[in-house]
Amino acid sequence: MTAAHDLIWEESYGAVTIDDICKRADVKKGSFYYFFHSKSDLAVAALERLWIEESKPQMDATFSPSISPLQRITDYMDYIYQFQVRIKQNHGKVLGCPVISVGSETCTCNEENAVGEKIRELFSRKRRYYESAIQGPCHDYA
Question: Is 87 exposed, middle or buried (0-12, 13-18, 19+ CB in 10 A)?
């Protein structure tokens, strides 16, 4: 999943093949198909893992109800900025948000699209955090 996430984020969903993923992960193609039916199944699992291990803990901490609504938004924007600075230092370019990158490439497909559905689900989860800050009482008028 890490190999898939990194490759798709660094390149693009459409450009990355199952062979590329297997090579990066140092696994045989048969092993890939033992666990996943397709690249989209792997992408969905990798996106969910990204949410559970990275995004949700970050969002929970940043959007804690104990923090004023304006500070939540300010802290989140600062986190995103610092994250992208680190990415540029490590990769020599800004890669953007991994979820948006995959979503912009896959969400307009007309066929059944498990990746697009997962992207929409993740954005719905994130939207709840934003709404909590926007709808919360704001006492930071200074």
Answer: middle
